[in-house]
Description:
single chain; about 25% strand; four-stranded antiparallel sheet; alpha+beta; Nuclear Transport Factor 2, Chain: A; about 50% helix; about 140 residues
Amino acid sequence: MSSSPKIWKITTVAFLALTLISLTVNVYLMVQNSKLRNFISALGPVTREGAIYLSRNTPSVQEFLEDATTYWVNATYSDEELVRLWKGGKPERFSNFPDDHGVWEVYWHVDLKPHGVDSVGITHYIDEMTGELLWEAILYMQ
């Protein structure tokens, strides 16, 4: 019976140590995320080239570009007035879009003929100020 209190103490200490480590890691990640957002904000609004770069580095675009025979990309800026119109028409779809600035719509057309699908269209909406990917749509075309 003397080992039961010892096991309880060891288990409690281990649990507290894991909780402290988890808390420390979470705080560290929150600080790093905050630093990254501050860095992006300090750079100013995301440019057309920046939006394409952010979009290109998403897993979906990377995956399709690996198998592409050809592709093209287009980026179009939509200002805050147009974003408000979208939000008014479909608030559930655009609820995470900003109220006070615009977004970049980045469209990729990727040809994949040898893979059974003729092409894929990937659309990304990227927040102009934060660089956050707000919405992604993938359309398979034959």
